[in-house]
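Hey L., structure's done. Input below.
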Amino acid sequence: MQPGDRVRVERGDVTNEGVLLPSTTRDHLVVKLDGGYNVGVDRDAADVEVLESGARDVDEGTDAGGGEASEITFDDDLPTISLISTGGTIASTVDYRTGAVTAQFDAEDVLRAVPDLAGRANYRGRVVANILSENMEPAIWRELAEAVSEEIEAGADGVVVMHGTDTMQYSASALSFMLDSPVPVVFTGSQRSADRPSSDNVMNAVCAVEAAKADHAETLVCMHASASDDACALHRGTRVRKNHTSRRDAFETVGAAPLGVIDYETAAEAGADGDAADAAIEWRRERLPRGEDGTDADLAPDLDGDVELAKFTPGMDPAAWDYLDGKDGVVIEGTGLGHVHTDLIPRIAELVEDGTVVAMTSQCLAGRVCDRVYDTGRDLLDAGVVEAGDTLPGTAKVKLMWALANLSDPEAAMGRDLAGELTEESQPWR
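Output:
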């Protein structure tokens, strides 16, 4: 038997079937089950039967969806959706040489792997990056924003960005500031790889395409709205946060309901019917309308990369913030209304005096900073800290990077709403 063979392994009262993977030891067998999980079995204690030799090509892995390649043809009656790939689990496959899930599919491969996308739109595939999302960085945000702008100017009626979920909220925030789009820009990904029956890649991809065809001009994150396969939530890119490591409904709009919810059954049936795409969406809050000129995208891709997000914790050594010296901008994730230990305030004042823009956010999931209530807050304001309202800490970092590179008064910008990141007043949301 060889890696890639489909085998039945019996040990005691337990029988497992799956694809044999390479093992790091001669004493154990590693089998990938049909459910996507790997199990290790003591080789000497197991009876192994080869059911099919070479069931998987260990050199090429497996396709992401297990289905036949879908044939995409151009139809003048269909909208054009640009699929831009940056990598991530939604574009991943199992490497049967290692048993690992790796990001290696480009946008064209996603179309072949998700045949449910056929007939919904004309597609253009484009690869900006092929990385795990933890390797995302500002230089790629710029490339992504420029690619989206080029696709819109080339006539795309909407854009879907395939992205890893771990840093998707940062990238969605970045494009929200960098690009004033006249058409929908929808980020989507998957929490579970396509080789698992519980994968969310097909539903998220279908809902994202339907959201990209709908009547709005928002930068959204489209992911499962619940643990079930019933609906996807549409979150504004500057107000979304990944709040769970592995649940399919990991993403939430902080401080409010999602901008909209798209019913999967209706979306799945929508197909080529453009009106049905809007019918599938229940808009729960006001959204930006499509632009009259669908090819005119205003792009401001410059970012100041010399910005850090610093988290305050009780008992921290003030020397831990020495790396902030000389930075152009610092966003502090403070406690409650936006506080830090009083011993850190002189340190912050030094940063401001040296020309660093220092903005305050809160570690709380909802609510806004207000440094005019307690003495600590007043001292922070006297030190030159600017309040970022209820802007999420990660979003505030991206916003400050953009504001420093594009605006004459970035300090003032941190206190006003630019792309839906800061609300006028906090509302109950639970």
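The CA atoms of residues 62 and 210 lie 27 Å apart. The first strand starts at residue 6 and ends at 11.

-- N.
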